[in-house]
């Protein structure tokens, strides 16, 4: 199993995080993003979107972090991380969609502006961040985990860009439940951080 990876990418970290927590061996292949390697002929053949991460396992090639999490959990039959029961799977899936939508357009977008110089409308990214962080805070005031009262791939999908929010000028100081949730994830056996998310 190969993961074409960028260390500073929260999306790549989602996959590395889950693999570490679930004891899944991955062949991590660093990609020179600043050098444009993600746009090389080889990488575009794997992912025409020209983005990272890219996952390769035999004949399976996946280009989306959430999809990779699903594949790894189901391939290894890790029911605790992604159940096959329809209602429970859907509970996890709705949080994967949150990672791809509200978190992507909030804390992640703010970080893209401040850390990487993307030309996005910063006030909109801040407003989006405040909305999703308020919703997460409310949920986590009553739940230790996002879904199913235990760690799942939902937590792996949502946590990285939330934890990295300060790198986009979005403070987490007013979100005690979110901070406790991040700490719970960091305390899980096998947790391995990334720049900006230390253990």
In short:
This protein is α+β, with helices and mostly antiparallel strands. The protein folds into 2 domains: 2-75, Glutaredoxin (3-Layer(aba) Sandwich); 86-186, Glutathione S-transferase Yfyf (Class Pi), Chain A, domain 2, CATH 1.20.1050.10. Helices cover 51% and strands 8% of the residues.
Separation of the first and last Cα atoms: 25 Å
Computed over alpha carbons, the radius of gyration is 16 Å
The secondary structure category is alpha+beta
* Number of self-contained structural domains: 2
Which term fits the overall shape?
globular
* Helix percentage range: 40-55%
- The poorly predicted ranges are none
Mean pLDDT: 96
Task: Report the order of strands and helices.
Answer: EHEHEEHHHHH
Which CATH C-level class of the largest domain is it?
Mainly Alpha
Beta fraction of the residues?
A: 5-15%
Record the strand order, biggest sheet. 2-1-3-4
CATH domain fold name of the largest domain: Glutathione S-transferase Yfyf (Class Pi), Chain A, domain 2
Write the CATH architecture name of the largest domain. Answer: Up-down Bundle
Q: What is the β-strand count?
A: 4
Main sheet record:
4 strands, mixed
Number of helices: 7
What's the topology here?
Elements: E1 2-5, H1 10-21, E2 27-30, H2 41-46, E3 54-57, E4 60-62, H3 65-75, H4 86-116, H5 122-140, H6 153-163, H7 176-186
Parallel strand pairs: 1-2
Antiparallel strand pairs: 1-3, 3-4
Helix pairs in contact: 1-3, 1-6, 4-5, 4-6, 5-7
Domain GST C-terminal: 85-199
Keywords: Transferase
InterPro entries: Glutathione-S-Trfase_C-like, Glutathione-S-Trfase_C_sf, Glutathione_S-Trfase, Glutathione_S-Trfase_N, GST_C, Thioredoxin-like_sf
């Amino acid at each position: 199993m190969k993961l074409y990876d960028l260390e500073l990418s929260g999306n790549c970290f989602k996959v590395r995080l889950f693999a570490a927590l679930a004891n899944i061996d991955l062949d991590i292949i660093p990609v020179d993003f600043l050098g444009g390697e993600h746009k090389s002929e080889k990488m575009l053949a794997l992912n025409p979107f020209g983005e990272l991460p890219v996952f390769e396992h035999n004949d399976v090639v996946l280009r989306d972090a959430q999809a990779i999490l699903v594949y790894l959990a189901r391939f290894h039959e890790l029911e605790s991380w992604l159940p096959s029961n329809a209602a429970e799977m859907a509970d996890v899936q709705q949080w994967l969609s949150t990672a791809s939508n509200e978190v992507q357009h909030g804390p992640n977008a703010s970080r893209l502006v401040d850390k990487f110089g993307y030309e996005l409308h910063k006030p909109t990214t801040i407003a989006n961040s405040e909305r999703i962080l308020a919703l997460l805070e409310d949920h986590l005031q009553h739940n230790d985990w996002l879904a199913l009262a235990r760690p799942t791939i939902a937590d792996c999908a949502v946590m990285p860009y939330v934890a990295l929010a300060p790198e986009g000028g979005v403070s987490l100081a007013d979100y005690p439940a979110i901070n406790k949730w991040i700490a719970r994830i960091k305390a899980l056996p096998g947790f391995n951080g990334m720049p900006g998310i230390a253990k």
